[in-house]
Structure formats: C-alpha cells, structure tokens
Amino acid sequence: MSSPLRRTVRGMRDLLPEEAEHMRLIEMEAREVARLYGYREVITPLIEHYELLAAKIGEENRKRMYVFEDLGGRRVALRPEFTASIARLVSTKMVAEPKPIRLFSVGSLYRYDEPQFGRYREFWQANYELIGSSRPEADAEILSLSNDLLKKTGLEDYYFKVGHVGVLRGILSEEGVKEAEQNRIMQLLDKKMQDEALNILKKQASERCLETLRRLFKVSGREWSRVIKEMNASVEGYEEASSAVENLEAILNLTSDAKMDLNVRVEAGFARGLEYYTGMIFEVYVPGMDIALGGGGRYDRLIELFGGGPTPASGVALGIDRIMLAVKGRRPGWTPTWEGLRVLVLPVNEEVKGKAMELSSRLREKGVTVEVEVMGRRVSRALSDASRRRVTHVVIIGPKELREGKVVLRDMKNKEQRTVTVDEVADMLEGLQSGSSRISL
Ligand code: AMP
Hints:
Mean pLDDT: 94
Bound molecules: adenosine monophosphate
Shape: elongated
Number of helices: 17
Helix content: 40-55%
Structural class: alpha+beta
Largest sheet: 9 strands, mixed
Oligomer: single chain
Strand order of the largest sheet: 1-5-6-12-11-10-7-9-8
Number of domains: 2
C-alpha cells in the first residue's frame, strides 16, 4: 500500500482535466434545462444536522452516511442527497413562497457505498424539485425534463423504468402492515429480493395479499397501456392501490399526449430505497449498464414531516458521474478546450517579455485561450514543447518585427508561419476561436 500522501481515500477520485471539463459541461447542460423549465438554483450546505439527513433516507442509505461530531459537539453529516435539504428550505425560509416552487441544485454527495464501477463515495447529482402540486402534470414535467437533459448529453438508448409506490403501499396498508415494516419490505424489493419480502409478509398478511403481490411482481413491459391494464386487474378490490394505478396511467397518458417520446418500461413490483416516496417513481437506465443513471418520484409527505404543512412534491436526481460513464467521456461535437484552439505567445528574448504579456491580454480579451511562455525556453525548444502539448498556434514576438508593429504567427499543424501586424493576428485568432467547434452554452 502506497503512502497516504500519494493516494486518494478509498471511494474518492481525482477528475483529471478532460474528465473535469466533461463533468462541468454536463453540469452546464443541467443548468440550462433548469433555466428552460423555470427551476431556480439554490445552494444548500454540504454539512447538515444528522437528524435532518437521516429522517427519511431509508435504512440502507442511513447506514452509509458520513457522520461526525464537529468541534462544537454537534452531530452532523455530509449530505447523501439533496431532497432533505430542499424540504428543510421549503418548510422554513421559503414557506411564504407562492406555489409551485421549482428548485434546482447541483453538487457533490457522499455515501459510504462499496466502491465499484459507477459507484463512488463522492458523486455528483443534478437535482430538480417541483413543489406544491399533487397533479399528474407535475410528475410528467419531471419525466420530461429528465428526458431533455439525457438527450442533451448525447445519450440515445436510455429508458425510464417506472412504477408507483402507492400500489404496493396501498395493498400493505389495507392489510394493516405497519409503516416501519412496509419500509423494510420496500428496501427488499428495491434490491429485487421479492421472495424474502413475501416471506416476511407470510406472518402478517392474507393469502389474497400474497397472491396479489406475486401476480404484480410478474407484471412489467414496454407497452405501458397493456401493463396498466394488468396492474388494474391484479389489484382489484384494493381501493388505494387501484387509485395509484389510475394515477400512474394519468401520468403516462400525459407523456403520450405531450409527445415526449419517452422510452418507458413499467414494472409493477418496482420499489426505491429512499423511504419518502409516495407516488410515481422512476429510474433511468442504458442497456449494458445495470446501474441507474438517475432516479426520482413523488414525495408528498416529506415537507410536512419537517413542519412545513401539507406540501406535495415531485423530483429527480440525475447522476452526473454515471451519465459521464454512459456517454464514455466523448460525444459528437464536443472538443475539450485542450484540443481546441490554443495559442502560445513566445517572446524571443528578455527584452520583449512585457510585450508578450501585453499581447496575451489583448488576445484573451477577444476570447482566445492564450498561454504565455514562462519557462525561459529558447524558441526552438519552446516550439517543440508546444507541439507536444497540442498548442495550435504560436505567436512569436521578436524585437525586430515588433519595431514595425508586427509578430510572427506560426500554425503548428502545417508548420507554416508568416509575419503579420499585431492587429491582424488578433483578428485572425479571434476568427478562428469563434469558428472552432466547441459546444458552448
Ligand atoms: P438516489 O439519490 O439514490 O435516488 O440516486 C440518484 C442517482 O444518483 C442514481 O441514479 C445515480 O446516478 C446517482 N448515484 C447514487 N449513488 C451513487 C454512487 N454511490 N456513485 C455514483 N452515483 C450515484
């Protein structure tokens, strides 16, 4: 094992320049989707009271929180998700805000998960919450903006796995299964441990209930109208569960009417680990990757739990790290800055160093990426180093040319160079910069 001075903590990663730039690009796209849908950004703290974060996160995630005592003796934790902080905000500082409230957050989260492909202990999410509406249009909006963001990042073959917590919870409630027990069962179902869930229920639920669940667990598919019909037939006689199916149908109908062109797979037995969901839930997947790129759903009671009065809400968290993995770091039309236009301004001697810095500033004002030579290298050394570092153009400043207001512009690709005026070089590089194929928002 190498020295702690030379490695990151297990589960933590360094993002090297190209990865960092790609991550920020997805973040920018997420911010753009927020703007288009009218979601305002809020920035909440990385550290919150343990009680707030632990309240409804679910047993699995609770065990994985980074909890510690700060120097003032407070029991605090690193946030494992945004939703608890947003619920706190909405039930306190934003309580008088007219509804609906649309909020966006982006940042890092911390869970002591077992590190593996796409699972880190520090990861990034783009998070959207639509607060104040219990209507299907709100859930459909959350699906729609998730779809828009995924499309923007260049992904094509992703699909939404959709379910409804109200169906399973409705049945269990009618059977008199207590909430804590329901949570346990939902955790098992989240891990696809359906037999274990049924075993627990054997002691406390009717045979009819077990039969209904067994039937529901088999109901899934891409043609959602057929799946909804089968769900309806399975839950007959369970009133709450039936209205949950109706609600899910209304949401899916809206996505069709709005021509969202969502790739949906409805699964009647689908559950999510977070305890606070009350309605439609979903996760996003791409073929060949069995970890979700994002997940969300309706949580109508969380804000009330924090003292905010009854406030229905729906939201989604999209995992930026996993989106990066799914698009494999590259996509058509994206050139990392490192590979775009990069200019080196190179003074040939000490005398023109100041001029080199002055011209660099002038070029930067025109939006050009400019590095100035700082290693005191001679021209030939500096040129060979520049091509190794993928510099595209070098502006060579020599005292003789400068006396005539001129510099040498060298194209590193075809190795051609010519003497041009300072004004010309600025205009030429500005033109190349705006014509370069970088995605900008
Ligand atoms: P959740 O908050 O559990 O609903 O997760 C929402 C999204 O966050 C997931 O779909 C992932 O994309 C991402 N995510 C959750 N946990 C991790 C993790 N340990 N590493 C990377 N991404 C994660």
